[in-house]
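Extended Data, panel c. Modelled sequence:
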Amino acid sequence: MKIIVANWKMGPSSEKEAVANAKSSDKKGVIIAPPFVFLPAIKKVVKRAKLAVQNISPEAQGSYTGEISPAMLKNFGVKYAIVGHSERRALGETNEIVNKKLKTALKSHITPIVCVGESHRDHQMKYLHFMKRQIIETFKNLAPKDFSKIIIAYEPIWAIGKNAEREATPEESEEMAIFIKKVLNDHFGSGSVKNLRILYGGSVDEKNAKAFLTCGGVQGLLVGRASLDPKKFVEIVKITEIRR
């Protein structure tokens, strides 16, 4: 089954709008990642979609002001956690911090959706060396069996947001999906890629979703801004359902 993750980021602005968006997105295979404050209300209305958070503490418990523990999240039915998103990495999250967060999620039986991706591409293909190091450090000390409990989201940072250099192509997504699997296979063993799920997450919308699902070498999508537009997101979900 294809997976589609709705990353609402810091939106919407009201609980009423959040609940309405959740109801329209309540489909099998959909994972909704709202801001923390909307989790209680959304939990009451979704029946088929699963809940995720946009971040998770690297610590299971303790004196960590401003953090929210995995145990608290499970009380709201949270099954997934986005880890290492490019916007979090831009705030200073290192590969080591992301590694600790995903391990904390696994120990708490929360599936981490781990984001990886390069900030730019160069003709000398140095970005592959960057990606290799990021992957190895992000998943350091994991056993091959752990990867069946992990979802990887590839986000080409250079193709995201208002400063995007250009749109990424499905062919580039497929290339990186193959590369990610090769690095994992080489460093963590063949068992690490046997049941691995990879998503594409670079400015996905209703216009390019079909192409990435068909030719991008991925098992689903991580949708950002478009997930806050009910009409656009419903169209993406319909495309995803057709591709299953």
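The domain at 3-243 is CATH 3.20.20.70 (TIM Barrel). This feature is highlighted in the accompanying rendering.
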